[in-house]
Amino acid sequence: MTPNTQRLPATRHTPQHDAQERDLALRGLTSDVKTLPPSLFYDSAGAALFEQICELPEYYPTRTELSILTENSADLAAAVGESVALIEYGSGAGTKVRLLLDRLVRPVAYVPVDVSQAQLLRVADERAEQYPGLQVLPVCADYTQPLSLPQLPTAARRVAFFPGSTIGNFHPTEAAAFLHRVRHTVGPRGGLILGVDRRKDPQVLHDAYNDAAGVTAAFNLNLLTRLNRTLGATFDLNTFRHVAYFNDAASRIEMHLESTIAQQMRVADVEITFEAGETIHTECSYKYDEARLVALAESSGFRIETLHTDAHDRFWVAWLRAV
Ligand code: AVI
């Protein structure tokens, strides 16, 4: 641990977590339209598969966002100004924030927020070592819930960083509620740097979620493997297939797991019945056009100042100011 990192009390995997997972899974699987929450994707196998997705030729968002950040980091740093406290929502293993930290003028604090404690502390130590003058204040929390942050220098302007187009995985009302909380956290002088995936040619979207190597399919199916392990579920993975398509009216990619046969299985101690062709809806990934993004920003107390994009107009890194 470096002297500019503040340690957190340890949290452990507890029976409470198992009960939560059971409740989440059963609530979705016993409803009329079966669902599972995308948060369940990210066990260690799922997180590793997601890293592979980010490298796929068809999955453009990660490298496109990186290229936009690389090209525009100086502009972003100038817009954000000096002496900021940068709060990163879902810091993960990501290194995107370094593109900003390398350019910011005298940043005073970096607050990575993530639910995975081991990774959070490793990343916090790395950043503290890389930026010796920077106070690194890791917060182990689920950022979709209200957050309490450590004391930050009062003079510092608070700027949130939410890359990865994860905002697209929130339904519109959840996205607005989340950005509203971010706006509250950064305060009236604050701002937000937001990664957003844009609406585009449906074929490009289709391919990004139906890659030829089958990694996205493996990522989706891993949900069932997880429930077999953690809840003693009895999913037969040979009888489910990955389905992903663009729902144009809702402007979102939908991922599903389709049961190829009529069948019954157990999850925890509950019997679940599937008809042939019935699906579990596992993820939505909303794709924004400018009107939708403006409406989202305005409904949550922000104004879009700048939209940085790429040569193919696929992705935005947006700079939003609190109003
Ligand atoms: C994390 N999130 C932004 C990804 C997305 O594109 O919606 C998750 C993902 N699902 C399938 N591929 C990637």
Strand content: 15-25%
The N- to C-terminal Cα distance equals 38 Å
Question: DSSP helix count?
Answer: 9
Which cofactor or ligand species appear? Answer: N,N-dimethyl-L-histidine
Poorly predicted ranges (pLDDT <50, ≥5 residues)? 8-12
Principal-axis shape equals globular
Kindly state the number of beta strands: 13
Q: What's the main sheet like?
A: 8 strands, mixed
Describe the model.
By secondary structure, the chain is α/β, with parallel strands linked by helices. Helix content is 36%, strand content 24%. It is built from nine helices and 13 strands. The strands form three sheets. Strands 1, 2, 3, 4, 5, 6, 12 and 13 form an eight-stranded mixed sheet that branches. The longest helix has 20 residues. It is globular. About 2% of the residues have low confidence. Bound molecules: N,N-dimethyl-L-histidine. The site of N,N-dimethyl-L-histidine has 11 residues, from strand 11. N,N-dimethyl-L-histidine binds next to strand 11.
Question: Could you outline the blueprint of secondary structure elements for this entry?
Answer:
Layout: H1 15-29, H2 44-55, H3 61-80, E1 84-89, H4 96-101, E2 109-114, H5 117-130, E3 135-136, E4 139-140, E5 157-162, H6 172-186, E6 191-197, H7 202-208, H8 215-230, E7 240-247, E8 252-259, E9 263-267, E10 270-274, E11 279-286, H9 290-299, E12 302-309, E13 315-322
Parallel strand pairs: 1-2, 1-5, 2-3, 2-4, 5-6
Antiparallel strand pairs: 6-13, 7-8, 8-11, 9-10, 12-13
Bound molecules: N,N-dimethyl-L-histidine.
N,N-dimethyl-L-histidine binds at residues 53, 61, 164-166, 168-169, 209, 216, 283, 285.
